[in-house]
Design brief:
5-stranded antiparallel β-sheet, globular
Amino acid sequence: MNIVGLTNSFRDLARETPSRPFAWTRDGLLTVGALSAQADTMAFRLSKAGARPGDRIFVMMRNSPAALALVHGILRAGMIWVPANPALIGDALAHAVSLVEASLIICDPEVTSSLDACGASASLGRLVITDNAAPPASDVQWDGPLPQPQDTAALMYTSGTTGPSKAVTVTHMMLELAAQSVQFCASLAPGDNLYMWEPFYHIGGAQLIMLPILHEVTLTLRDKFSASSFWEDVSKSGCTHIHHLGGVVQILLKQPPTAFDKNHDVRIAWGGGCAPDAWRPFEERFGVELRECYGMTEASSLTTCNTEGVVGAVGRPLPWFSVTIQDEAGKPLSRGEGRGEIVVQTSLPGAIFPGYYRNAEATAKALQDDGLHTGDMGSWDENGMLLFHGRMGDSIRVRGENVSAYEVESVANRHPSVGESAMVGVP
C-alpha cells in the first residue's frame, strides 16, 4: 500500500483537476476545487481565532457543506480534528472536552445550550457556525506547511466499557487507509456515487469524506438517515453504493414496499451489523449485494471484509492486516476451537493506532506485543472466515453506535431516588 498523504493529495488534485466532482449536496454539485478553496477559508478562520498546528479543535456539528469544509480546513492547517456527537450532554460532554484539552470549540447554534449547561470550555473559546452552507471560497491559498502521514489528524471518541469514553489517536495515514479500505471492500469503480448519511464524527463518515481525494468517486451528502425516504433519495441521486451500520438493514426491511425498492442503481451495500436472518431477504427485496465488514477506529476502520457472500461472516483480513483468535491464556484458536478475543496484526507500520490520548493504561491493555487486542469476541468458520460475536466488555449497540453502560448509569445514578443502577442490553 502506497501512502501518499491526504492533504498533499488534496492540494495537488485541486490544482490539476479543480472541476472534478467531490460531492452532491442539497445545494448542488461541490467540486474538488471549490471545496479546496473553502477549506482554505476555514484554515484562515481558525488561524485568525488563534489556533495553531497541533491545537485540538473540538467540533460538534451535524453533516453540512460548512462542516465538510471545516474538517478539511482543520486537517490542511495541521490542527487536530476532534469530532463529537452533537447529542452529547452533561458529564459525558464535559469529560470529552477536558480529556483532549480542547483549544477551540466549534459548534452548531443548537449545541451551545448543552455546552453552557455542562460548563465545558476551551482555551481559545467557542466559535458558533450559524450558516451551514459552504463558506465563501478563499482567493488566497493556505501557505502553511502541510502535515505528513504520520502526524495526528484526529482524536475520535470510542465508548469505554468500564469508564468514560477514550479518545483514539488517528493519524493522517490511518484516515487514508480507512478510505482505501472502503474502495477495497466495496469494489469501487470510477464514476461511482456513494450515498453518505453517516455522521462525520463516526469513523464510518470520516473515511468517506476522504475517499474522493484518492479515487474518482462522488459522494451524495445527507445530514441524517431517513428510513422512509431512503430508497427514493438513493434512486433519484443515482447512487451506486450504500453503507449500513447497526440495525439499518433491519430497519429498511421493515419499511412498506415502494416503487423504489429495486428502481435504483445501487450494486453493493457494505458495512456491519446485519443480522444473518435479514441478509438474504435484504438482497432479494432490494436487488443489492450485501458485504459485511469488521473493524474499529483503532485499526484504521476496516480490518476484514466479506466479499464471498457467506451469510453471517465478516470475511477475511484486508491485505495489510492479519487476525488471530485467542483464548483467555493467549493461545491462538483454530477453526472449530470456539470463541476468543479478536487480535489484529499488521504488515504496514502505522495502520494500527499509536494509542489513546492521555490514557496510558488503556493503551497498554490494547497494544500488546502480539497485536491490537480489540476486546471483541470472534471465531473462525470451517472456511477460515471470521465470525463476529460482539463485545467482550459491557457495551450496548444502539443504531450503529457502541453505548457504554457506564455512561448511561452515571446519569441515572444522579437521580435522588436512585441508589444504584445497571444497564443491560436486550434484543
